[in-house]
Amino acid sequence: MAGAINDHWLLGAAAAIAETPSRIQKLFRNSEYSAEGIFEVIVNVENEHQHVVIDDRLPVDQDHLLVNASPTGDSWWMVLLEKAFAKLNVNYSNLQGGSPIEALRQLTGMPVVTYHTKLMTEADLKA
After folding, report:
1. Cα–Cα distance between 106 and 100 in angstroms, integer?
2. pTM of the predicted model, to two decimals?
């Protein structure tokens, strides 16, 4: 799924959210592939909805293969979501080494809590 950049933090968070497909569908204003190749993605930045407009022009290598996320079958949402985050962060290079917690917050708009399970007792883990 990942390519030339280290944006596993984003791709992993998006994959986790995709366990409930309606959550991914809510991120896209388009319900169908745009004939013009224009898409609008809605993410949360600093507790406000940001509408990010992107096109379907994607970076490829010398063999014309996508250099970052790849589609799964006919599903291009991950590739387009990654491009929207790249645009929010100026370019793809700025997606390197981010935080999964921040990605979850931006994708859902919900608070995110981290549990340091190595520091928790067995009773804490069962609670």
Report:
1. 10
2. 0.85
Structure tokens at 39: 């898409």
Closest CA to 29 of 50, 5, 6: 50
pLDDT tens by residue, 56-101: 999 888 998 888 888 888 889 999 999 999 999 999 999 998 899 9
Cβ burial, residue 117 (10 Å; 0-12/13-18/19+)? exposed
Long-range contacts: 66-71, Cβ < 8 Å, 24+? Answer: 66/3, 67/3, 67/4, 67/5, 68/2, 68/3, 68/4, 68/5, 68/7, 68/92, 69/1, 69/2, 69/3, 69/7, 69/11, 70/1, 70/3
Residues 6-57 pLDDT 10s? 899 999 999 999 999 999 999 999 888 888 999 999 999 988 999 999 999 9
